[in-house]
Amino acid sequence: MQSLDEFYTTQLGRYALAWEQLQFDKLVTDCFGYYALQLGASSVDFLRNSRINNKIIGEESFLPLTQIRGGNRSRIGLLYDELPFESESIDLVILPHTLEVAIDPHAVLREVYRVLIPNGRLILTGFNLISLWGMRYQLQKFGAKPFLPGRQFISVFQMKDWLHLLSMSVDRGIFGGYRSTLSVEKMRSDSWIEKAGDRWWPQCGSLYALSAKKVLPGTKFVGKAINKKNFLFGTRANINNLKDRVEE
User: Fold this and answer.
1) Domains in the chain and their CATH numbers?
2) 23: pLDDT strictly greater than 60
């Protein structure tokens, strides 16, 4: 299977990387806290625009855990479904196609939920199956050559459903990448098809980015139950009085 880092070196991958880097730059700017974590694609710094001081870039590896410090960044080897962090200790987690390359994406999401603080933010990107790239991906079932990295691809609706089950509230999302895979050499972010796609068929972009917050279920205090006598604009009708009047 082609790795995500290898994909980003191809012409199609550079096009996807440019769009994803722009979205991460926008979405991480208003995230604050002490620790930010990027899982996957360790050759790219998607946290470059984050205001959080302590940034960790983790890559899945079966090698012994190592840590290479560079400024306020730490690059470590880890397992996505067994993160070596305490519960509720990370303020921001970003997943650049991480769930698509993971062996067990559900386990990865559960671990991300565990390490996020209450109201912590998750930002992820993925390939959209309802797109030109998705159509070509479906042709792989009939023998077409694989061209995207990943073990499985998750639709936007399925991803939102998974996040909802984990009590994570999706508050922002965007689609992009409307060019076909056959015209990558002519791709530009300001081309007419990009502008037309954003306006007329936004949900058919080949790439998507979602931002969600961790919401903890809480208790709602409703106070003492009160038997109200008034009903709408008048007094609640008394059934016994009405019955007596009818009999008279």
Assistant:
1) 4-219 (3.40.50.150)
2) yes
